[in-house]
Amino acid sequence: MMRADNEPRRGSPLRIDGAEVRIVRLPLVTPFTIATGTMYDKLFPLLILKSDGLEGYGEGVMDPLPDYLDETLIGSMSLVRDVLLPKVVGQSFENPEDLEQILIGWRGHYMAKAMVEMAFWDLWAKSLGLPMKTVLGGLRQAIEVGVSLGITSLEETVTRAEAHQALGYKRIKLKIMPGHDVEVVKAVRRALPDAHLTVDANTSYSLSDTAVFRALDGFELDYIEQPLAWNDIHDHAVLQSRISTAICLDESIRSAADTRKALQTDAARVINIKVGRVGGYLEAKRIHDVCAAWDVPVWCGGMLESGIGRAHNIHLSTLANFRKPGDTSSASRYFTKDIVNEVLTAEQGLMPVPAGDGIGVTLDWKFLETVTEQVESFKP
Ligand code: OSB
Ligand code: MG
Prior knowledge:
Blueprint: E1 14-15, E2 18-34, E3 37-51, E4 54-59, H1 73-88, E5 92-93, H2 96-103, H3 110-128, H4 132-136, E6 142-144, E7 147-149, H5 154-166, E8 172-175, H6 182-191, E9 197-200, H7 210-216, E10 223-225, H8 234-242, E11 246-249, H9 256-264, E12 270-273, H10 275-278, H11 281-293, E13 298-300, H12 307-316, E14 350-352, H13 365-371, E15 372-378
Parallel strand pairs: 7-8, 8-9, 9-10, 10-11, 11-12, 12-13
Antiparallel strand pairs: 1-5, 2-3, 2-15, 3-4, 6-14
Helix pairs in contact: 1-3, 2-3, 5-6, 9-11
2-succinylbenzoate (OSB) binds at residues 34, 68, 148, 200, 202, 250, 301-304, 327, 329.
């Protein structure tokens, strides 16, 4: 019988016969500052799901404290350890849709659910002998990427923007916050008159700052990312009606339903998709599809991921409606050494899609041991 392409694939069910969670700490090459705070190292959970000699990998993007969004490492880990993994390990699932049934019942905890779902997708793709991009429905060999520049001095920001433009990155995103906005954009625009420039405010403004955004309208930014509160789509619609530059939502979009509301009210004209923020690939694909139906472009955001999360982001970005450069730049910009063997490097703003089954990257176990702070194993 023919299988319609949008139907879940049916195969022999995958039995999850074990899992391991590692808490990993990687030092950052340079501190990364955004409106909500500064990161000095990247602390994250790595989930390994096992089935019949295969391993699937997922990386959690929750921060130790609820600064980017409301989820925390400790809160997430308690759900993963006590609730999610006990329902996964020892069970069998035919496909991601099957696994999603045991995740969707719980409110929030998008990043925790995404980590489990992503590891399962990787495992499932490997069991089918297919690259992750193929099971997702993507076609590209390489994806277009830009960089996200943290908040530093005005001079340093201009220098970094010029250096990344010279490397061929397809877009330069400047982090802004009140008191560090129009002057920085003006200086970078003066230095790089033709660059594809955007800004990301990480929720640090309110409608009373409309004058700042009207001033930013003068610099040909492609979009302004998440200017207002993380849980407020409505005020973004009001701001969008007052300015000409497109608004791109990041923090405010947790689901396809949020996306539909944002597009219906013209609160955003571009959407940033992060699998972790929206609870997994299935929801990320639904958001991608809602945007495609509205002819709204999406791009893949980042959370300073290690090679595991980075590889996932690259595969997701092969889907057709990822029409703007993503944030998945070279891993070496953040880490001197990565936990994967494959070096993920962009050349001239193009990041190749790792070849092989699943996400196509393998763990450097020896190095991983040295940066693991905690390991927990789960058996049926
Ligand atoms: O808003 O996109 C964001 C990093 C941490 C938290 C939020 C954000 C970011 C980035 C970094 O912009 C993107 C990257 O991974 O390079
Ligand atoms: Mg952002």
